[in-house]
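From the thread on structure requests for the teaching lab: each student submitted one protein with a one-line request. Submission from student K.M.:

"Model Outer membrane beta-barrel protein from Chryseobacterium sediminis, tokens only."
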Amino acid sequence: MKTLRRVLVPLAILPLKNITYAQKKDSIPLKVRAFFADKIPQARNFNVEYTIVTPSSFSSQLQGQDLPDNKVKSFQQMKADANIYFIKKRNWLLSTALNYRYTSIRNENPVIPGTETEENFHYHSEAVNLSYFSRLFKKTAIYSASISVDGSDQHFERIRGLVTASLILKATPKTKMSLGLAGIIDPSSQIPILPIFTYENRFNNGWVLDVLLPKKVLIRKDIFSNGRISLGTEMDNTSFYTYRNNNTYEFRQTALNSGAIYEHNLGGNFIGTFKTGLRANINSRAFNKQDSFNDYIWKGTYKPSFYFSAGISYNPFERKKSK
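Reply posted by the TA:
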């Protein structure tokens, strides 16, 4: 599921934020283009976020054998992301996505392969994305391809590929909707082809429904003069590599964070974010690097816990626009 994030970020950013680069300036009404401008943009050029999760118990299996019940005593994570556009043309766009994750996990009994003597893990990924804009069935179509590498603080580990195609079904001041497919070129992926659906609708009372399946379902509203509150569910992923006896293992965990998000424009293109709610792990597995996610040697089942997250982002490339 780690590659899921690389699928969703381009599809979330490009249709909603950069559609204006896909067509001639007069092909989209001014009121539609203005709607994409926001005091709190969803796409962030630079973002840093710190998350803590409350202790929770879990059960697990190692090579098919049940292990004694265990407990996560501490879980902390720091994320740093950069999304930068190199070249923007009328019909194509070249960008990069840089990601770093520091994860600290302290279990009552270390059972995840490679964590017996280590509690702190570093993960990074770097991707180059090329997107092309055209017309299909008289609608805007977006095609993209990306290549990425990832690894730990010790080694580069994988090279992955990704191709996507999406169609903007609707883009008005009130409603935006798109449908697409993503193909993941990665032997370790459990889902080689992934459908993507985005939908955004503004209600008359100021609330906005924001759907990006399977990444998130949120309803949000601007409050105060520079704030925004969101309620709903987002998918979150944790990945890192571990090493033991000359073997390389990959740990992947997918969770649903359900709760509230508050964002505030701090001025100077800085945005502060606070998140809190209930965290439910969907799956947690560890497997040999040369195998796939489905050929795991360890899996865990966690009870829900609470999460708290604070972050700040900086968007130096955002131009101030008025609605």
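TA comment: The chain has one domain: 45-314. The CA atoms of residues 171 and 177 lie 7 Å apart.
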